[in-house]
Write a structure and sequence with these properties.
three-stranded antiparallel sheet, Creatine Amidinohydrolase, 23% strand, 288 residues, four-stranded antiparallel sheet, alpha+beta
Length: 288
Amino acid sequence: MIIGRNDKCWCGSEEKYKKCHMKFDDKLKEFKNKGYVVPHKSIIKNVEQIGKIKESAKINNAILDLVGEKIKAGMTTDEINTIVHDYTVSNGAIPAPLNFHGFPKSCCTSVNNQICHGIPDDYVLQDGDIINVDVSTIYNGYFSDASRMYMIGEVSKEARRLVEVTRECMIKGIEAVKPWTRLGNISHAVQTHAESNGYSVVREFGGHGIGCEFHEDPFVFHYGGKEEGMLMVPGMVFTIEPMINEGHYELFIDEDNGWTSYTDDGKLSAQWENMILVTEDGYEILAY
């Protein structure tokens, strides 16, 4: 379908095409003709959509702040789930993980050697534990997603270093976000920092597009070479969420619940996740 200069833009902004995405499309076509993998227009968010995603992210951020205030030794991971669930619904939102492909809880709580998708239960947090709490929120039909690491009481220097370096890996990845460059720059930045510190990057899981759906394109690898992968363009929203292992990157998934992944060698794992908007001149962190 050919859009005229004075027709409404395909993005749904109600603006005339010539004032909205016409120059964007011309530039995208140039890159595509050069052999770049370019994003489908369905994952490019307009101003209205970005505003609604930010509203969802505001609730998501507040939930993680609240968890940070409440979390302590002696608390069960199911109590964390209750905090997340109650705050979410009391603010008119929906916990995105709940019943997602059968997931039974409102957030993920991954402790020590659990890599991701830990299911809250009666596990009692102990002094020295490290835990990732992964929160995803639907508000007025729009999705947000972020996770943070929490250190319970006095943790070992090895655990603290893993948590800190993992956050640095995420930051390095975020700093590589730049419009009209490739996603592989994120992958390379994360992997380089992790491995230079003696850690490994989990291969099986990665970041993902988000906003209008829980999981959209693109898949965001946290390992790989520079100048590879899809082109990043303004209006894309995706997560950067490296999972960094103290030992090697091999894992296994709990056969009983079908969700929780563990390090194969039993060593610690950590994860941080932010949700990023690609802007005209860089990036904006929406959920953290």
